[in-house]
Amino acid sequence: MPPVPSAKSIHIALTFDDSFWAPAYATMRSICLATSQRNNLVFHICHRPLSTAHRADLMEIETEFGATLCFYDLTTTPEFLAISGRVPQSKRLTDIVYARFVMDRFLPETVERLIYLDCDMMVMAPIEELWHADLEDKVIGAVLDPWGKLIGSGRDIKTTSDLLDPAEPYFNAGLMVMDLVRWRSENIAEQMEALILGGTVARLNYSQNVINLILGGKWQRLADRWNIVDPTPAHVSYNPSNLHYTGTQRPWHLLSRAGYARQYRHVMTNALFYRYLHFRILKRVSKFLPFVKAN
Description:
Elements: E1 10-16, H1 21-34, E2 41-47, H2 52-65, E3 68-73, H3 78-81, H4 103-106, E4 113-117, E5 121-123, H5 127-131, E6 140-144, H6 148-153, E7 171-179, H7 180-185, H8 188-197, H9 200-204, H10 207-214, E8 219-221, E9 228-229, E10 242-244, H11 261-268, H12 270-286
Parallel strand pairs: 1-2, 1-4, 2-3, 6-8, 9-10
Antiparallel strand pairs: 4-7, 5-10, 6-7
Helix pairs in contact: 1-2, 11-12
């Protein structure tokens, strides 16, 4: 059972499957290393089934820092199962990314504010700065996406311009400070259900497009440094608060040229970094040799 939140609790949600446990661990550990309020951190882990070993790795966050981890198996969560398989997905972006639309339904009602983070991030600044962001009565706070016009317009702007106006601000949904009271009052999950039934979700293709459509004009812009997309070494001078590795240069790759890749490896820990490298190699080999198992 999830713990009873205290007034000082900082609630953070992540969604991932078993093959992404190590980056999720690195994201959580980066948060813990950057704050002195570690005992107040409550991580809501929204996941597909985890192996015993991978779950034990994640639990090290509690052991090392005194934070709290709450686990929600999405394969047994009715609120997620109601949309699973009915929304667009790809090899890289499965339908698990839509879990953020219904978190308000399965997280405790006592959680009134939530920070949602993608698991391809490394937080560099105290998370409480983000937690206390002034949303000015908006549903969420987020950062303007530098690739917004490309993502929102797709390959042909004519196909979605009736839904997403390229002249309107577009946010990156990988980091959101969510006012769950307003989220619930806006019936976001119900709005998405209507868009699924009407065929709009299929047209928009990406969950980020869907959430931008629903929350257009209802989000507060946060400082750009809280979501630096595709960081390079040059971003060091920008003093970023959070790095978001969305591109091909992933910091968990052995010869990564991503910004802060060396620091990321130390945050993940060298031991887990090489275990994860071994896991990914075995997983790739297992596609051709079924008797090889990644673990």
